[in-house]
Write a structure and sequence with these properties.
- With 103 residues, the chain is α+β, with helices and mostly antiparallel strands.
- The protein has 4 helices and 3 strands, in the order H-E-E-H-H-E-H.
- 29% of the residues lie in helices and 19% in strands.
- The protein has a 3-stranded mixed β-sheet with strand order 1-2-3.
- The protein is globular and about 40 Å long.
């Protein structure tokens, strides 16, 4: 199973209304088939009342194996359904890599 598929599967335990896992490794100086850099957008009612750091901690705990191994970078965009609606279902774009182009 790919790293991306494992992340997607594990995130389902948070009962998301929306979940998107994007492999952004191609934007970095890594081999073309790498699975090292990901962006996660997750919308879940369970984030209601939680500060951003607590939301991040939940995801970090869930993905501990991936973060201790193949995943080098993980951008998290975590919203409640109300916040997601207020954002018009949009998450920020990722910045360009400062470490060089794809290798």
């Amino acid at each position: 199973m790919s790293v991306q598929a494992r992340i997607e599967e594990k995130l389902q335990s948070l009962d998301p209304e929306h979940a998107a896992v994007e492999n952004e490794s191609h934007m970095h100086n890594v081999p073309s088939d790498a699975e090292t850099h990901f962006k996660v957008t997750l919308v879940a009612e369970r984030f209601a009342g939680l500060m951003p750091v607590k939301r991040h901690q939940q995801v970090y705990a869930l993905l501990a194996d991936e973060l201790s191994g193949p995943v080098h970078a993980l951008a998290l965009h975590l919203y409640t359904p109300e916040e997601w609606h207020q954002r018009a279902a949009a998450r920020p774009d990722s910045p360009n890599c400062r470490g060089g182009g794809a290798g």
